Amino acid sequence: MATRGSRSINETRVPPHSIEAEDSLVGAMLLSRDAISEAVELVNEDDFFQPSLRHIFGALWHLYTAGDPTDVVSVSDQLKRSGVLDQVGGTEKLLQLQASTPAIASAARYAQIVRDYSLLRRLIAAATEIAEQAYASPSDVQQIVDFAEARIFDVAKGNNTENAVVIRDVLWEALEELEELYAQGGNQTKTTSTGFRDLDEKLSGLHRSNLIIVGARPGMGKTSFALSMASKVAENSEDPVLIFSLEMSRIEIGQRLLAGEARVDSMKIRSGRLVEREWDRISHAAGRLAERKIFIDDDPNITVLDIRARSRRLKANEGLSLVMIDYLQLMSSRRNVESRQVEVSEISRGLKLLARELDVPVIALSQLSRNLESRHDKRPLLADLRESGCLAWDSQVRLGDGSSVAIGMLWAQGLEDFEVLSATPEGAVVRSTARRVVATGVKPLVRVGFTDEMYLDATLNHPVATPAGYQAVERLRIGDQVLGVDVDGTQIVHTVTSMNPLGSELVFDIEVIGTHCFFANNSLVHNSLEQDADIVMFIYRDEAYRADSPDRGVAEIIIAKHRSGPVGTVHLAFMENWALFADIAQG
């Protein structure tokens, strides 16, 4: 009771603010366009404690960015058009603010005071939210810790919790960036170079806030590829690169980086059997690498929440240019997760949120399904991503109102943020929001037949709900049971009666918020891994399968998914002894 009492007392306190600083800042802005220029660099409408000054500041900002006059008459007219002139006190209030301004030259100082008090108010709001979450006695304490750290980090960055931005502001930013690109002759200024010429040309570099998945079968060199990229990024950036290695120790990572930088056989570095000239190369390479800001975290038990927290701290303290995780299938999301498919969805979604939150590219390495080994052409496809799959065009998706529509039609209509029937981890049928439908390429399908004459056409690795948890279609056997939903919304159980391969066709998946699952042909199916990724790349080396390959020393980097650009293949040189990828010389 004492705690509750103290909370109610705190709630009666007036939030920190300065009426004098707010009045003086807006008054200075009414008197000088230079003051407006200084103010908009530090504060926005939401930083004002007084609602009336939020409106006046907004009117000033609108006129200023449009290049229009910002005198009292113009501001009054703008407020009148917005229907709030009387609400702020009329033209008399504007004249009063002008007259009471102590010094126009102090506008930046007034703005800083307003900003500081705004930060204090947001800190109080964040602390209140954190306290409410903690008082609720959550089952997953680590998730609350992550929430608390994220909220405090948002305040430290000066972010508002309101993220919606009006289109005119978005267009203003887009035009500014376009002008910057034009001035640079078309060179990307807000992307991170991969260090590979042809790959940069294809991707336009690594874009901020993008999640990039790099997949390969064992022995293809996916770790070497990612480390080659990370080393190049660190060489060309003032901000650090952060590497999370769940498979290899930091010493092993260091040895690989040394081998590539020094052009010395990695086996010799591991064994210590070096000649004098190789020691010289290693010494010089170590000196160069030491100048690069590369941070290595080799905690093998790290979770996606740990990665987000540690990345957040490094960004706040040192800056950040790239995050790399090796590799996805070794990660966990949280304790007591319902199934591996749910866990993988949480991981991929968490990494995408990390990329967006910190505004940096995130590269996650991934293993591929061994199914590709049975194909004649062993070049990877999207369907080869482990714990990822898709459905046929005519798969009937159960919508929130109980009706059914083919997943391909939903995609063709471009529907976003619509309701589908879904299921909680406990098995309760609920309505969930589907963010969008995605086409994921042409893939081979299998038809799973059930006792009630229903069937499901899916890729071999698409996760389907069973009484024992989600299982990939390829793991189902005749007689196994699959969970589903009847026409009236009640749960049913199918029994698998047949498994027949089909041809290849364009396939689709749905990104469902929260539950990550939906009903297709009355069967409960799960989201795919690649949905959250902006770019999916695969590594293929023909010499790994054919000793007489004419492409020895050449690696194909297959861009299988590129949300905002072209797909295709880039060829790089691979020096296996040096654990190094490099551009192929032109000419």
CATH topology of the largest domain: Rossmann fold
The residue ranges in which pLDDT falls below 50 over 5 or more consecutive positions are: 1-10
Strand order of the largest sheet: 5-4-6-7-3-20-21-22-23
What is the C-level CATH assignment of the largest domain? Alpha Beta
Please report the distance between the alpha carbons of the first and last residues: 79 Å
- Radius of gyration from CA coordinates: 28 Å
Which structural class should the secondary elements be placed in? alpha+beta
Figure out the total of helices: 18
Q: Number of folding domains?
A: 3
Keywords: ATP-binding, DNA replication, DNA-binding, Helicase, Hydrolase, Isomerase, Nucleotide-binding, Primosome, Repeat
Pfam family, one: DnaB_C
Organism: Ferrimicrobium acidiphilum
EC number: 5.6.2.3
Detailed description of the structure:
The protein is an alpha+beta fold and 587 residues long. The chain has 3 domains: 127 residues, DNAb Helicase, Chain A, CATH 1.10.860; 231 residues, 3-Layer(aba) Sandwich (Rossmann fold); 139 residues, Beta Complex (Endonuclease - Pi-scei, Chain A, domain 1), CATH 2.170.16. The protein is 39% helix and 24% strand. The protein contains 18 helices and 23 strands. Strands 5-4-6-7-3-20-21-22-23 form a 9-stranded mixed β-sheet, with helices on both faces. Strand 16 and strand 17 form a beta hairpin. Helix 2 crosses helix 7, helix 2 packs across helix 8 and helix 9 packs parallel to helix 16. The N terminus is likely disordered.
